[in-house]
Amino acid sequence: MCRRKDLEPAGNMADEFFLYYEELDWCEKFKKAGKKIWFTGKTKIYHKESMSVGKESAVKTYFMTRNRMLFIRRNTGFLNTLLFSIYYIFIACGKQIIKYILKGRFDLVKWSFNGIIWNLKNSKNSKNLGFKI
Fold it and tell me: From CA 118, how far away is CA 71, in angstroms rounded?
């Protein structure tokens, strides 16, 4: 939740994300606008994970892969982006891709690669989602 007067300098959530990481990017926008992000451990929210897109779906795999990289690209400097990208592409995604291969989910391997490739081909402010919704 935020006050309207605090929303104006930060702006709305970025359309570039569509799904996953948009709220983290928004928090970064608030911090850059000089606002504080508060957390309360007393609040409870019940969320059924991936009910709209499925636990292992093309949509989830693509946007999680794409948007993790996009978030870092939008919110850190060159060195952090470079180091994260090397780790993420070769270690984290590599591990996930091996899991998909072992499960026979070659469709998700493709969408993992598509999420990575999107970041290599597109600007961090691109409105092109790279996925037909």
Answer: 13
Q: How far is it, in rounded angstroms, from Cα 16 to Cα 24?
A: 13
Give Dmax over CA atoms of the chain in angstroms.
51
- Give the sign of the dihedral formed by CA 26, CA 32, CA 36, CA 40: positive
CA nearest 67: which of 108, 18, 131, 32?
18
Distance CA 131, CA 133 (A): 6
Cα–Cα distance measured from residue 104 to residue 100, given in angstroms and rounded to the nearest whole number: 6
pLDDT in the model for residue 19: 86
Q: 12: Cβ–Cβ under 8 A, 6 or more apart, which residues?
A: 26
| pTM given for the model | 0.84
Q: pLDDT band for position 17 (50/70/90)?
A: confident
Contact 75, 25 (CB under 8 A): yes
Average pLDDT over residues 70-76: 95
